[in-house]
Amino acid sequence: MAEDGRPGARVELSGWGWRHAGRDAHTLRGVDLVIDPGERVLLLGASGTGKSTLLHALAGLTGDDGAIGGDEEGLLLVDGERARRGRAGAALVAQDPESQIVMARAGDDVAFGPENLGVPPEGIRERVGEALEAVGFPYGPRHPTGALSGGEKQRLVIAGALAMRPRLLLLDEPTANLDPAGADLVRGVLGRLLERTRATMVLVEHRVAEVVDLVDRVVVLEAGGGVVADGPPRSVFADHGAALAAQGVWVPGHEPAPSTGAAPGGAVLLEAAGVAARTPPGLGVRVPPRRPVLENVDLAVRAGTATALTGPNGAGKSTLLTLLAGLARPYRGAVLPRGPLAAADRRPLARWPARRLARHVGTVFQHAEDQFVTGTVRDELRFAPLRAGRGARETEAWVGELLERLRLTALADVHPYTLSGGEKRRLSVATALSSGPSHAPDVLVLDEPTFGQDTRTWSELVELLGELRSQGRAVVMATHDGLLLRRLADVRVRVARGRAEETGRTAAEGGTRGRP
Amino acid sequence: MADREPGAPVADALTLDPPDDGGARYWLTRFNPAAKLVAAMVLGLGLVPAVDAVTGGVVLLGVLALVPFSGLDRRTLLVLGGPFLLMGLSSGLVNYLYGVEGLEGAVGAAVRLLAIALPGLIAAAGSDPTDLADGLVQRLGVPERPAMGVLAALRLLPLLADHWRTVTLARRARGLEAGRNPARMAALFFGRMFALLVRAIRTGTLMATAMDARAFGTGPRSRARHSRWGTGDTLLPVGALLLLAAAYALSARLGTLVLLFS
Where does the ABC transporter domain start and stop, copy by copy (chain A) (predicted)? Predict the structure, then answer.
């Protein structure tokens, strides 16, 4: 590629610190760091240490006309100048491809950056062609961006960054939102790119093991502080691995090993019979017709069993979950209660009154915020038991216990939206369970429950789910998390091309698993 | 306005060719969206002075005749046009019940509203948003930053629709259901609106950050796409003007023309 000849940018921070607007504490402070041209650096730290903030600052987004407001101190220089967005040669790729694609057609989207840089039209066309080729984009420039899969979208976002011919490539968990196949694709693209370009790269990634081959240096940050470790990956992990792992960082060789009880198994509680679902309708000219997402899916959910739905992004896992949870009506077929669940109501789940449904089937959404309905953490937890008719004293005792157990006691009176990612996740699981100790729902349905969590929250979640399973409750989850699958999944169902097929059953070894 | 004229690039990978598939049903989509918008504005503004049913009716019939060629399907027309139809009918009804002009005035009010709204609806909903923004910026001199901002926001609409569905499902998951109680229905609706707003702000902020990171608004932009303008694009507003003139002439001839403030 054309930028091959251009050296990467040199980054220099001294005494650098950042405090977000409206916060009392500094996110980062006293950061001293020099990154030489062409170096590949992985930034590590527990959640909330300001890794993303540092990337944004390097991209020039925290400057005077930047999108992010706050107080800056110390020096942050890219090639000896204060970082300015765009013209300084930095390009940023963030987590969620959905919110980074600006235009409706692939080529237009890649052209967006060069257009903003004032590149003449002929030059733009050349750059768009090059960038799309560099990421192995399988379609033409006129392909609608809305019709791309998650992995394809993220490849397009990387192409959009490359088209700006960056000398400093900033990657903020670029594979976090992707299914394993999509993440592999993107990592492959990055690996090939880094061989060809001399650009400096700074990478933030949760799951370290998967990217450690892409970097030659690891820098560990501390919340409210600066750099606490710096060096080649192997020596940093050897010296600081245990300490990092204790803070919840995913470190190779220090994977959490939660103890999950045995899977007792049990009767079928839910049965999907011939279920079909379609995409929602669109409006406009030449909108694609409603397309089937699921066709004729049959699935049985058993008590005392963890059922995992796997499969590529967009294959209909989340849709199937909402149908199994009785939240939406399938286009054809029905999800029917069986065994003890049928004693509550014999009708298809989608026709149950919401109150009854919430008592028997708990749902945890991928974005925890979607399911919060009150103004404080405590009210969120009180909500279900009070509606289920529990007395005030019983409710308070149970809410106190849940708060303690989920490490949310200190936050009982704050608004749920102000919690951190891990806290939100813990609260959302708690709300789905909070009808009472002996009244947890018979079926718990979770969409990507471990997504983006540090090892501490991860372990707590897995232990909690294991405990529910031991009590004979059914756990159904959609997940890409390989470790979660190994630790907890008894039955694996692959959802792809409108079908759901059981691909594995590990119930036999259920009793021996999960002991560290 | 047009800066690289008229020898604009032809083999331009990013400029969309006028769609030639689909035949007559998509005839209107071949025009520059800016031309459609100008034509719609000619009709809309031109109808403001005339309040009788005949002038509006002729324009309405003329535009209705184009609907089958607009590329819009029945569902889109119904969903987007439904509110206007309702507005037209209710405005007619109110005029009939309380107006001084009786049935004639009422029909005039309804027809006029529809005749003003329909061309704009066809122009906006029947155009590709990117082409529309390009046309507005390059042909009508609309400032670039707001046009691109609105275009990016349009890409968020399907995401918002998704969020709305999720938020609705989440209320049911928590055991919230309005049943037939209107007060509870309203409370639930506002709860969902709030949850949607939070998500929308978050997504919007992420996208703004992404646009900033791609140097949006750091200096003068160049343009990867060229907004084409052919003879047909000039003729479309002219045609609209002719239709308008014909409507006024016919109405005057029949003696039905009633002007505002007359």
Answer: 11-249, 270-516
The predicted-structure confidence for A422-480, as pLDDT tens digits, reads as follows: 889 889 988 888 666 567 789 999 999 988 888 888 998 999 999 999 999 999 999 98
Give, for B93, the enclosing helix (H) or strand (E): helix B74-98
In terms of DSSP H, where are the helices of A59-136?
A: 106-116, 121-134
Q: Which domain holds residue A193?
A: 2-246
Tens digit of each residue's pLDDT (9 = 90 or more) over A317-331: 999 999 999 999 999
Domain count, chain B: 2
Give the three-state DSSP class for A64: coil
Can you tell me the distance from the alpha carbon of A202 to that of A232, in angstroms, rounded to the nearest whole number?
14
User: What pTM does this model have?
Assistant: 0.82
Query: At residue A447, what are phi and psi to the nearest 5 degrees?
Result: -105, 110
CB-based contact A150:A314 (threshold 8 Å): yes
Q: Is residue B219 part of a domain?
A: no
Contacts of B174 (CB under 8 A, 6+ apart): A354, A358, A371, A373, A383, A384, A431
Q: Which residues pair with A81 in a beta bridge?
A: A78
Residues of B in contact with A325 (CB under 8 A): 173
d(CA A414, CA A294): 40
* Nearest residue to B124 (alpha-carbon basis) of B63, B33, B43, B59: B33
First to last CA, chain B: 39
**CA–CA distances in Å: residue B49 to residues B43, B55, B105, B237:** 11, 10, 14, 19
Contact B224 A67 (CB under 8 A): no
Residue numbers in A near B213 (CB within 8 A)? 59, 61, 85, 90-92, 94
Checking DSSP bridges between strand A268-278 and strand A292-302, what pairing results, if any?
Answer: antiparallel
Give the minimum alpha-carbon distance from A202 to chain B in angstroms, rounded to a whole number.
15
On whether both B128 and B233 belong to a single domain, the answer is yes
| Domain assignment present for A285 | no
